[in-house]
């Protein structure tokens, strides 16, 4: 069974891939991602996880997938922490629109991963907090 962390499009969602079709546990936003996490962990119970996968599009496609610097870092931190807590590898998978495709990618990545594998945060954009903001105010100096 693989737990998939999906923070695309401003959401904090989890997928559980194992026997049968992948099951998605959703939330209304990243801040509610822990609600989805609680639901999926209750579903897993004492079952054995084989790995944790973070959905992270290539750095060139992260912004078009609705991922910010913070969501990339959040997904990576959550995947690595869950993998560490369960003693399983954390892996990175590319995005897909179909949950079953995500599940297949996650299963394949986990099978080929080294036992202590971790995910790195790669992001080619500038963090929003450091971007210049247009406040709509101009100051004229005379």
**Count of discrete domains:** 1
CATH fold type = Nucleotidyltransferase, domain 5
Ends: how far apart?
A: 68 Å
Strand percentage: 15-25%
Keywords summarizing the entry:
single chain, 142 residues, Nucleotidyltransferase, domain 5, 5-stranded mixed beta sheet, elongated
Note down, in words, how this protein is organized:
- The chain has one domain: ATPase, nucleotide binding domain (Nucleotidyltransferase, domain 5, 2-Layer Sandwich), CATH 3.30.420.40.
- Helices cover about 30% and strands about 15% of the residues.
- It has helices at about 35-45, 70-85, 100-110; strands spanning about 1-5, 15, 25, 50-55, 90-95.
- It is elongated.
Provide a concise account of the structure shown.
The protein is 31% helix and 15% strand. The protein is built from three helices and five strands.
Topology:
Layout: E1 2-6, E2 13-17, E3 23-25, H1 33-44, E4 51-55, H2 69-86, E5 90-93, H3 99-112
Parallel strand pairs: 1-4, 4-5
Antiparallel strand pairs: 1-2, 2-3
Region (Disordered): 122-142
Biased composition (Basic and acidic residues): 131-142
């Amino acid at each position: 069974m693989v737990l998939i962390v999906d923070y695309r499009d401003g959401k904090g969602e989890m997928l559980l891939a194992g026997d049968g079709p992948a099951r998605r546990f959703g939330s209304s936003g990243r801040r509610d991602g822990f609600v989805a996490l609680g639901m999926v962990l209750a579903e897993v119970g004492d079952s054995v996880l084989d790995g944790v996968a973070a959905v992270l599009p290539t750095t060139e496609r992260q912004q078009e997938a609705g991922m910010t610097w913070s969501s990339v870092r959040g997904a990576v931190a959550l995947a690595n922490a869950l993998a560490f807590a369960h003693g399983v590898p954390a892996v990175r998978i590319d995005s897909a629109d179909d949950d079953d495709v995500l599940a297949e990618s996650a299963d394949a990545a986990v099978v080929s991963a080294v036992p202590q594998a971790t995910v790195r945060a790669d992001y080619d954009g500038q963090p929003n907090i450091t971007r210049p903001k247009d406040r709509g105010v101009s100051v004229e100096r005379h």
